[in-house]
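Here comes just one.
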Amino acid sequence: MTDRVEFTAPLGVLGRVAERLILARYLERLIRDRGRFLAGRTWKILCDAALP
């Protein structure tokens, strides 16, 4: 699965600077960490369901 996120920060030039310096890395990390969490949680649910 591929996540595609588009965002635009307000405040014109200042917002574009914030996008490049802060927001882009933050969102990439957020999506990556959330994916890892969901994968781990799904694995746990599947393993728990397989146990008698």
The radius of gyration is 17 Å.
